[in-house]
Amino acid sequence: MFSVLSLLSSPPVCLSCKQVKANVLVLGLANSGKTTLVNCLMEAGDQEVVPTVGFSMEKVHFDRCKLTVIDMSGQEKYQPLWEMHYTDAKALVFIVDAANPASMPQAAAALEAVVAHQETQSAEPL
């Protein structure tokens, strides 16, 4: 698993196609801004945002990088679904709502669970 910044700044190059294809997971608690970030990456930042149910997938292109961004629902009942996508992810972005200090303990616990999962053990966090 790579960090998003390292993936975009020095992507591993496929010799036959000269392009990088990667899945990026966007995780965080409900209403933390995950979909807003994805919309900004897609240059659709002015869209109305509604809560994600389950997950949504978007294709984002940066130069030679073709990213499939998987925006996972942060609602507690959907959080167990996150781990189903760890294996295929090349990057993981965990969003925290800094404007909501009351959610910090819950966000920290969710992030600790992600980092402790067997499928994310080889990741290098930024």
TrEMBL record:
Signal peptide interval: none
Coiled-coil positions: none
Pfam families assigned: Arf (PF00025)
Cross-referenced SUPFAM superfamilies: P-loop containing nucleoside triphosphate hydrolases (SSF52540)
Keywords, alphabetical: GTP-binding, Nucleotide-binding
Organism domain of life: Eukaryota
InterPro entries: Ciliary_GTPase, P-loop_NTPase, Small_GTP-bd, Small_GTPase_ARF/SAR
PANTHER family: ADP-RIBOSYLATION FACTOR-LIKE PROTEIN 13B
Assigned protein family: Belongs to the small GTPase superfamily. Arf family.
Name of the molecule in the record: Uncharacterized protein
Gene source species: Tetradesmus obliquus
Lineage of the organism: Eukaryota, Viridiplantae, Chlorophyta, core chlorophytes, Chlorophyceae
